[in-house]
């Protein structure tokens, strides 16, 4: 088959951050093979990331056993349910097999993805080396250590080397994660911003429009599913106060599912500080729960996105926002896009950092607690003033 007519399957099922950071693979493959059939196999959770991706042809989402109220004490019902689920999975694998892929790129290489890669029957099966047994599935292997010390949005591009795709650092700088944002996504965010603009017009706040078409604001994303990786809430409130004093622009607090109470407490703390200083409480804005794509557009329209190294940071990068990530136990090199004109990371230079642990074994989280508000504030000013 002619190179440009190849059928290619990208295998990267989850988590959402991994899928998003893997999307440059599709873009680079499309550049190499403009007329190829390029598909993606994933968990259904990734629909919100992958749907409408301009570099992909088809998406395949594997069956997931749905939770139900079936009486677990009914052995017969549980047995029937599992038999049907097994049948659904077999049918799904047959469907994948029928695609007759020429190339499969397993960007995860766990037991499930290895089985899927083998089932495709593709003559070229690429992955990175992991366990000796799973490695037998593939005939093109990249050493796992080759992916270390590189921004994770670019690291998996190493898997394209067996296809004679070797990207230089300057080429990678132009590659970002991809999240399609529709007109509907934009309109929902704009509707909320217009409502807030109307409220601001009844205050003494002078609305500015140097970045957003509606009004300038600074976006803070203070969450992380692991508490050990969060910059202290009090530091975020103090930073918000400093930014308001500097730019006279509102703060928007970004949050995701189950994070509303934690972030709302910061919003209320900032409002109290504003009130104590005779400033309008409307300088602190608490938005509704936005989808990932809506959050991306909200981030892109902000003067700057500032937050922990969380999933929303990758959404912001994909949407084109200026981002400032705050790191403690994690490595900035791995998680922050290397384009320093738009994306910066901050971390202490001494003491306990980059332990990569999900549990802090010290008496306090010095890696983030000792990251000063002044340092974050000054770095944010530099990034905001940088021309793109």
UniProtKB/TrEMBL annotation:
<keyword id="KW-0808">Transferase</keyword>
<dbReference type="Pfam" id="PF01075">
    <property type="entry name" value="Glyco_transf_9"/>
</dbReference>
<keyword id="KW-0328">Glycosyltransferase</keyword>
<dbReference type="GO" id="GO:0005829">
    <property type="term" value="C:cytosol"/>
</dbReference>
<dbReference type="InterPro" id="IPR051199">
    <property type="entry name" value="LPS_LOS_Heptosyltrfase"/>
</dbReference>
<dbReference type="GO" id="GO:0008713">
    <property type="term" value="F:ADP-heptose-lipopolysaccharide heptosyltransferase activity"/>
</dbReference>
<dbReference type="GO" id="GO:0009244">
    <property type="term" value="P:lipopolysaccharide core region biosynthetic process"/>
</dbReference>
<protein>
    <submittedName>
        <fullName>Glycosyltransferase family 9 protein</fullName>
    </submittedName>
</protein>
<dbReference type="InterPro" id="IPR002201">
    <property type="entry name" value="Glyco_trans_9"/>
</dbReference>
């Amino acid at each position: 088959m002619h190179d440009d007519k190849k059928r290619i399957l990208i295998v990267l099922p989850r988590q959402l951050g991994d899928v998003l950071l893997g999307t440059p693979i599709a873009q680079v493959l499309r550049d190499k093979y403009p007329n190829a059939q390029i598909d993606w196999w994933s968990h259904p959770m990734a629909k919100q990331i992958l749907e409408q991706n301009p570099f992909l042809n088809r998406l395949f989402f594997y069956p997931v056993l749905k939770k139900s109220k079936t009486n677990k004490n009914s052995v017969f019902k549980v047995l029937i349910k599992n038999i049907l689920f097994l049948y659904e999975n077999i049918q799904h694998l047959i469907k994948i097999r029928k695609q007759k892929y020429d190339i499969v790129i397993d960007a995860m290489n766990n037991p499930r993805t290895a089985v899927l890669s083998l089932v495709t029957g593709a003559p070229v099966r690429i992955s990175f080396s992991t366990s000796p047994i799973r490695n037998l599935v593939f005939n093109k292997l990249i050493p796992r250590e080759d992916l270390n010390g590189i921004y994770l949005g670019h690291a998996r591009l190493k898997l394209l080397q067996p296809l004679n795709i070797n990207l230089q650092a300057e080429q990678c700088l132009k590659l970002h994660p991809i999240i399609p944002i529709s007109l509907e996504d934009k309109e929902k965010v704009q509707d909320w911003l217009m409502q807030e603009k109307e409220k601001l017009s009844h205050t003494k706040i002078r609305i500015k429009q140097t970045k957003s078409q509606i009004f300038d604001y600074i976006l803070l994303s203070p969450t992380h599913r692991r508490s050990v990786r969060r910059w202290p809430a009090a530091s975020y409130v103090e930073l918000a106060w400093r930014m308001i004093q500097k730019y006279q622009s509102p703060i928007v607090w970004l949050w995701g599912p189950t994070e509303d109470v934690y972030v709302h407490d910061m919003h209320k703390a900032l409002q109290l500080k504003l009130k104590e200083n005779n400033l309008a409480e409307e300088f602190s804005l608490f938005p509704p729960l936005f989808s990932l794509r809506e959050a991306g557009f909200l981030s892109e329209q902000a003067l700057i996105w500032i937050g922990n190294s969380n999933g929303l940071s990758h959404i912001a990068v994909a949407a084109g926002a200026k981002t400032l990530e705050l790191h403690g136990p994690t490595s900035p090199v791995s998680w922050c896009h290397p384009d320093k004109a738009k994306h910066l990371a901050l971390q202490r230079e001494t003491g306990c950092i980059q332990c990569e642990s999900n549990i802090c074994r010290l008496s306090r989280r010095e890696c983030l607690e000792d990251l000063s508000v002044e340092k974050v504030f000054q770095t944010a000013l530099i990034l905001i003033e940088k021309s793109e």
